[in-house]
Design a protein that fits this description.
This protein is of the alpha+beta class. It has three helices and seven strands, in the order βββαβαββαβ. A four-stranded antiparallel β-sheet has the order 1-3-2-7.
């Protein structure tokens, strides 16, 4: 994950989009929205380590064919198991859980808002903005 203190750094991957993230007033810039999403997820988990284990949250982090957070990559993509074989589709978080990153930026923002509520954060505490 490449983090920068200011915008203007180029992304290594041609489809990556520079991203600005804010977590509880701390601002960081990343070469891709995937890196920014990971950074924000890790900050939320640090705020509430048992966040992904909340049984009420279960309805928000999975559908019949897909989970957005799971204990294994295979659990992330129940409806399309082949996606689990591509490591670009998920990341492993510091708490051992896996997160689906095969999402558009709108879906990532929705998941961040849902997690923020369960972590006891406000909408302004956690922001993901794609630049340019």
């Amino acid at each position: 994950m490449k983090r920068h203190s200011q915008p203007g750094h180029g992304a290594d991957h041609p489809t990556a989009r520079q991203t600005r993230c804010i977590f509880k007033g701390e601002e960081a810039f990343f070469d891709s929205e995937k890196d920014g999403y990971e950074w924000l997820l890790e900050r939320m988990i640090a705020t509430k380590p048992c966040l992904l284990e909340d049984p009420i949250l279960g309805r928000h982090i999975q559908t019949k064919s897909r989970a957005f957070f799971a204990r294994t990559p295979q659990e992330l993509f129940r409806g399309t198991p082949s996606l689990a074989s591509n490591k670009n589709n998920y990341i492993r978080l510091g708490n051992g859980w896996f997160a689906d990153v095969n999402l558009d930026v709108k879906a990532k923002r929705v998941k961040l808002v849902e997690l923020a509520v369960f972590a006891g954060l406000s909408d302004n505490d956690c922001r993901l903005e794609v630049l340019g």
